[in-house]
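In this section we walk through a basic example: taking a raw amino acid sequence and producing a predicted 3D structure, encoded as discrete structure tokens. The instruction is simple. Fold the sequence below.
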Amino acid sequence: MGEVVSSDPQDYVWGFSGTPAPMRQLYLPSGVETYPYAWVDASQARALSLLSPVLAQCEEAHVMVTVKRDLFGTGRLVQVEDLSLGPTGCQPISDNAAENTVIFYAGLHECGSVLQVRGEDFLVYSISLHYKPTPSSHSVIVRTSPVDVPIECHYPRRNNVSSNAVKPTWIPFESTISAEEKLRFSLHLMNEGWSSERASNGYQLGEVMYIQAQVIAENHTPLRLFVDRCVATLSPEADSNPSYPIINYKGCLVDGRFDSNSTFLLPRIRDDVLQFTVDVFRFSKDPRDLIYITCHLKVTAATQAPDAENKACSFHPARNSWVPVEGTTDICSCCETKNCVRTAGQGSSHWDQGGRRRGRDVAAKLGM
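The resulting token sequence is shown next.
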């Protein structure tokens, strides 16, 4: 018979006792998360106490196993030194004499645990609690049997349960794709007060476009959004001709360099939002009045300092210089040299909408 022995919404313990039984589904009230959860199989040790003597709690990167020393419910306490975790024999971290409990605390990859993929949805870390009674110094007999209690921690493969980012020295391809799919980029034409999306995409020459780029990241470490480049074309294809670069060289708002007040707004309202204005224009040698603006958006960790490859720079006519939204002014110097490549030894990483995949093609119809 199975019983839920913990009701914490983050950690669930599933205990089995009595006769052997197959693994069962843990059913919880509607709206309660069912993972991560622990499965403790005591069915093979028929002599164990019926009061769930082994409890497991699965955390983000560790498992905590609490063992009652009255392992068999007879009142005879087992010796702490006879208990170990995993094939490597990890020892407990504490012994609570008042409650007669022993606690093991180990990393999911420690103590010889085994990682398996169950179907398409779960990662399962398996390990066993071992009880191996040893004869006392004055006897050659033991009064209890050895016991192995399998323990499993189940985690969803596609959910990030971390409160902070893992920073590996390399990023597996599947992890990159998974992270990329969780980032939702958007590009909107906004009203003059930036309070809502603009109802119309029609403009007259002399007006100003208010453009807002944003990223929504679920279960992700804080991110800072950048607009790598924006190009205006007369057809939806970003590589078509004629074309006019609005933002270029990895974050330089070059349109503001040429008889325009186009600029990034500073300071930002949030790291995951970037706002900029563009003076309305049209192509001089083409009568069509429908213009497409395609932007390439990317993000970096909010804790990463802006650099030559991750920046938002506007040209300031009065100063005759480039000004960054954040970071030191030297990161914008490449907007003039047009060579915005990260200097040697300077680390950088970002997620973006790679290749031709774009957050949105914004069509702005320009009236005459």
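Looking at the output, two observations stand out. The chain is about 5% helix and 40% strand. The radius of gyration is 30 Å. In the next section we compare this with other chains.
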